Amino acid sequence: xxxxPEAFILDRSAAIPLQLQLRRQIIGAVIAGRFxxxxxxxxxRALAGHLGVARVTVAQAFAELVATDYLTSRxxxxxxxxxxxxxxxxxxxxxxxxxxxxxxxRLDGRFAQAQRRDRVRDWRRFRFPFVxxxxxxxxxxxxxxxxxxxxxxxxxxxxxxxxxxxxxxxPELIDYIARHILTRRGIRARPEGILLTLGxxxxxWLISQVLLGPGRRCAIEDPCYPGLREILAHSGAAxxxxxxxxQGLPPDAIPAGVSAVFTTASHQCPxxxxxxxxxxxxxxxxxxxxxxxxIEDDYEFELxxxxxxxxxxxxxxxxxxVIYVGSFSKSVFPGLRLGYVxxxxxxxxxxxxxxxxxxxxxxxxxxxxxxxxxxxGHHDAQMKRMRRGYGxxxxxxxxxxxxxxxxxxxxxxxxxxxxxxxSPVPARALAQTLRARDVLIEPGWPFFADPARGDGFFxxxxxxISAARIPEGIRRIATAIREARA
Amino acid sequence: xxxxPEAFILDRSAAIPLQLQLRRQIIGAVIAGRFxxxxxxxxxRALAGHLGVARVTVAQAFAELVATDYLTSRxxxxxxxxxxxxxxxxxxxxxxxxxxxxxxxRLDGRFAQAQRRDRVRDWRRFRFPFVxxxxxxxxxxxxxxxxxxxxxxxxxxxxxxxxxxxxxxxPELIDYIARHILTRRGIRARPEGILLTLGxxxxxWLISQVLLGPGRRCAIEDPCYPGLREILAHSGAAxxxxxxxxQGLPPDAIPAGVSAVFTTASHQCPxxxxxxxxxxxxxxxxxxxxxxxxIEDDYEFELxxxxxxxxxxxxxxxxxxVIYVGSFSKSVFPGLRLGYVxxxxxxxxxxxxxxxxxxxxxxxxxxxxxxxxxxxGHHDAQMKRMRRGYGxxxxxxxxxxxxxxxxxxxxxxxxxxxxxxxSPVPARALAQTLRARDVLIEPGWPFFADPARGDGFFxxxxxxISAARIPEGIRRIATAIREARA
Lengths: 486, 486
Prior knowledge:
The structure is a homodimer of 486-residue chains. Chain A has a seven-stranded mixed beta sheet with strand order 4-10-9-8-7-5-6, sandwiched between helices. A four-stranded antiparallel beta sheet of chain A has the order 11-12-15-14. Chain A is globular, with a radius of gyration of 28 Å. Chain A is built from 17 helices and 15 strands. Chain A has 486 residues and is of the alpha/beta class. The longest helix of chain A is centred in the C-terminal third of the chain and has 26 residues, at 378-403. Chains A and B meet through helix 1, helix 3, helix 4, helix 5 and helix 6 of A and helix 1, helix 3, helix 4, helix 5 and helix 6 of B.
């Protein structure tokens, strides 16, 4: 008995093309067993008429399904669900009386507990999203990335796209990072001193697993990047937060006996201060003297507005104590999930082995696409565009912040994509209030070892909000603060 | 003083287009400081003449570099290196007398030691590569993947391509896996019971980190997937290898007090045996009785040749004790780096949190591309093609193995992409000999808890060698064995 045209429905409001919808619907019905092998489909004419689409749309959908063996076409008599298709065994739902495995007593929830709960996944729906670290369609050169990705999909690149690279990285990408990206930070590195990672998060995770563990001690900046504190909480090592001042991490405040110190010297997260050269030298001297590894997270160095960025710690380190962490999440886009570690080859070999154990390697296609994006100059062009765009927004932010009398917690920020503000009212409650008014801000608590201290601060990022909306957004924040104080 | 045409050289033998070579050369020279801001380039006519290329080639390269701000074009007087370009600070090489940080005493090499040293990275150069787990251009639908990737690069998909997804997975992909892939294995799962991973390797790593640790015990099959043993060696847990028989893992041989048992029930790795239904039920009963989690690595289930594949353990498990691991490395290609875990939502939440800590999420673009590849039926078509291709090669393998009198260690393998053979001579030495004769085989030692036992076996995979070359390859193996015995 033939399948009636009424069995088909298309959703014209959906973003998915109608031809594609039709194909998915047929494949889905076959696998679900609603359409059975041998059943005849409506004629192209009848189905097109019922759906109100061009015949060619239905014809193309059928042709594609014949090509993929879902349908069989018999001359003159039309299209049929193929006989050959194997359908999955239907597993009944678990019998209610079946004994259940007790997961509760086997999971201590230590990982889930560490997760931040304050992230707003649907931030795009807000009119004034002062959110940090998301991509902005206005600034990302989507077309250029697409061109590079298509190039990386070429026949010639089959191996880099499809192969299991074991522990290897894309040599073209490593070479480019070494010769073009790192030289701009004054860093000299050979390929065996560079490891690709799945973004900075993965880099910091690998570093903590290699260097730290039960019985070890490490120091971090306070406040600092929350993801780092989460990672270290699971390393088993004792973590010592060191309060930063106007020059960033004070070397003298680092406790004795630590084996690793994590810093964001060029651009402290989240306060945006830059560590002056003398303090950098003091920090390096301390590392060599105490024998601790110095992990430099050099995020957002590309976004400096104060002329030339100060050289990286890694650039002035002659001892090899510095492990440098770079990322393309800010300069290309976060969904790329590519970052890198530059360190002593012996350390890199260990981190590479751990990367291999835990995930093998970042997808080859993403690596090769990025290599093209860099080598064709698109990355540099995008950096320029971002600096221009962020610079403009930054000026608008500063003016609005001044007009509304908000309190910049730190002056002299060299750049980046956010401001760090002092909040005269509890920032967590403030964020809640503002969310109901279409405004997203980042309360300070996740950045601090003691969340209570963080309630006096909040971060305003301008990487995903257009300049035009900034003044009104700042106005709403100031109003909410005034109301909370009244 | 203008830059002379002689400053430019093109490599006509290189795979890189000449126009692209020219652009890279100019960008490289600018960043290296060889070309300085304000310097004038040769005229298009002069440079094209010197390089012996069409003027349009040079003109296009210049135009692209003007667009990306490397060059400035002044009417009538030609092209100049842009003034605006910031150049990286030049860091001198480390002073020889500088004190060096002592990495040796800080690295115990525990990860690097676990790495397999037997992998042949340049396997493509061998005429008879019986290597396992690499992509085959004959069987992978490169064009279809490319189409799906381009679709996933569309404007409409900007968010899925570029955004930081935090802990989330692509809903379209998860939905497809749940409704189409898992139903074929008889598995019912809701989205909260599914977690995307960077391939099966990453899935097994996450599982071991969540379930195991110092003080815990687990059991694995012997022989088993070497990557799993490497992962467990770093979990801190005690690992008990259980020898498999002709029916796979014997439940009665599992020691008491283990909290996790890893199995490849449908298709034992590397022996290719399939666990019969009665033993599966016995294994599940044992899991519930002893309270251990049962981790089912269901690799290559798509490649069964013996009619319908037997249902997964997860499909007949009503207790929820089974953690199911699937991967697209074999059915799409390994470079994709995408796999998944299906388990109790409580467990998935923990594993998701750990994934977030260690790498955030697999790149959104790869997720969305795969979603298209699956939903458009390309994955099913490729499976068909692979089954056909592997089936053909398998027949050729069986005939050649019979003719040459090689010894199949296991009969009745239901499929897959390899054979497991008994070696009458030390397999490790045999592999060395054959490598010099353009033949790659996998010696058995990495699969065994006791490498010495493994020297009596080797694996022959046919996933990356064409049917035409198989007979000669097998002949060479048989010859080498005869010579070694003589």
